[in-house]
């Protein structure tokens, strides 16, 4: 889905900021970055897998057993686990976490109301009409249920609270800074031993409020996006832009990672509106490799690839080209 903003203004600001940071980096850090390979991982969305017609458990098993994935960012969808108030269905997440434990897969479990994948906010129908204070109260109860249920799992590496909480994208009610901080504080109180990850738009967000609350800051990295004015559009940014911004917040967080690296098409319309082969032309194996080269040059320690479910759908339909690129990544 497209991100809708006053595009000309944003592009102008991005260009100016990117150039300024590039020249500043040249002065402060030199033009060379000592590159070390990142740890590659994936985000896995049960909601997206189902949308694509995939079997959740089969898909997850393929990523782990066939592809060799050993770290996953796994969203927990409030609308899926508590369809009726105070009645929780844990079976799907229980199965994924148990499988992860048995296969030494490390998990970043995402909790909150705004979590990865469109429409971004996943509030149950029964909670949609509640006033903001009531909804916050129920959201806190849900978060506590998730953390308490899984905090003793050896698979949990860290928690992520919300997803890009202040970025105006998705069909979402705005969350206040105090509501967000209350959710972060709750998770930290229930499991003080694990770090908390907070995510931001790597291209546009200022990062400041999120970095203050985070142990680990996750940034998105999108190269080819869509807007109504230009159609498909490549962000005019360099790897140094992300590297330098990471240096600026380095004193506030343990580390900055890439929580979303684009590895599938940007879908400006429903997926079913085009054939799989047509969508492949919007993001092919060459573009995948270029994004991998780009993120390597940003020299951030972890990279979570965005679009694994899409690779698997193509593979099941006889097109293994994106899957084969991913195999190269996880074989290293």
Structure, briefly:
The chain has helices spanning 7-28, 46-51, 56-67, 78-81, 91-102, 125-128, 132-150, 177-190, 208-213, 239-248, 276-282, 285-298, 308-316, 321-331; strands at 39-43, 71-75, 106-111, 156-161, 196-200, 216-221, 224-227, 231-234, 255-262, 302-306. The protein is of the alpha/beta class.
Q: SSE layout and pairings?
A:
Elements: H1 7-28, E1 39-43, H2 46-51, H3 56-67, E2 71-75, H4 78-81, H5 91-102, E3 106-111, H6 125-128, H7 132-150, E4 156-161, H8 177-190, E5 196-200, H9 208-213, E6 216-221, E7 224-227, E8 231-234, H10 239-248, E9 255-262, H11 276-282, H12 285-298, E10 302-306, H13 308-316, H14 321-331
Give an account of the 3D structure.
By secondary structure, this protein is α/β, with parallel strands linked by helices. The protein has one domain (7-331): TIM Barrel (Alpha-Beta Barrel), CATH 3.20.20. The protein is built from 14 helices and 10 strands. Strand 7 and strand 8 form a beta hairpin. Helix 10 (239-248) packs parallel to helix 12 (285-298).
CA-atom Rg in angstroms: 19 Å
Structural class: alpha/beta
User: What is the CATH architecture descriptor?
Assistant: Alpha-Beta Barrel
User: Which stretches of 5+ consecutive residues score pLDDT under 50?
Assistant: 1-5, 27-31
Task: Give the strand content.
Answer: 15-25%
Mean pLDDT: 91
Major sheet: size, sense and barrel closure?
Answer: 8 strands, parallel, barrel
The first-level CATH class name: Alpha Beta
Question: What is the helix content?
Answer: 40-55%
What's the total count of β strands?
A: 10
Q: Supply the number of helical segments.
A: 14
Taking strands numbered 1, 2, ... along the chain, how are they ordered across the largest sheet?
1-2-3-4-5-6-9-10
CATH homologous superfamily heading: Glycosidases
Helix-strand string: HEHHEHHEHHEHEHEEEHEHHEHH
Q: How many domains, in number, for the residues?
A: 1
């Amino acid at each position: 889905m497209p991100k809708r903003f006053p595009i000309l203004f944003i592009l102008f600001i991005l260009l100016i900021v990117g150039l300024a940071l590039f020249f500043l980096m040249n002065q402060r850090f030199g033009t060379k970055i000592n590159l070390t390979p990142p740890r590659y991982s994936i985000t896995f969305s049960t909601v997206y897998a189902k949308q694509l017609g995939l079997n959740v458990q089969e898909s997850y098993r393929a990523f782990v057993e066939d592809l060799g994935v050993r770290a996953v960012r796994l969203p927990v969808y409030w609308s899926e686990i508590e369809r009726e108030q105070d009645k929780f269905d844990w079976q799907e997440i229980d199965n994924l976490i148990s499988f992860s434990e048995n296969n030494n897969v490390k998990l970043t479990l995402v909790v909150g109301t705004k979590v990865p994948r469109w429409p971004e906010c996943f509030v149950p129908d029964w909670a949609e009409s509640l006033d903001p204070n009531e909804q916050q109260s129920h959201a806190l109860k849900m978060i506590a249920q998730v953390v308490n249920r899984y905090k003793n799992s050896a698979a949990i590496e860290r928690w992520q609270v919300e997803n890009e909480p202040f970025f105006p994208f998705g069909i979402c009610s705005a969350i206040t800074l105090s509501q967000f901080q209350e959710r972060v504080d709750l998770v930290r109180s229930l499991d003080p031993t694990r770090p908390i990850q907070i995510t931001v738009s790597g291209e546009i967000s200022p990062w400041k409020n999120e970095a203050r609350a985070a142990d680990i800051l996750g940034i998105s990295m999108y190269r080819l996006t869509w807007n109504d004015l230009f159609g498909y559009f490549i962000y005019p940014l360099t790897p140094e832009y992300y590297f330098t911004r990471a240096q600026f917040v380095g004193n506030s967080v343990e580390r900055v990672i890439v929580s979303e690296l684009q590895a599938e098409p940007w879908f400006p319309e429903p997926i079913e509106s085009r054939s799989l082969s047509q969508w492949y032309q919007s993001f092919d194996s060459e573009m995948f490799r270029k994004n991998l080269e780009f993120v390597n040059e940003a020299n951030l320690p972890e990279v979570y690839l965005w679009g694994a479910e899409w690779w698997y759908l193509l593979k099941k339909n006889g097109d293994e080209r994106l899957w084969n690129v991913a195999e190269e990544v996880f074989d290293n």
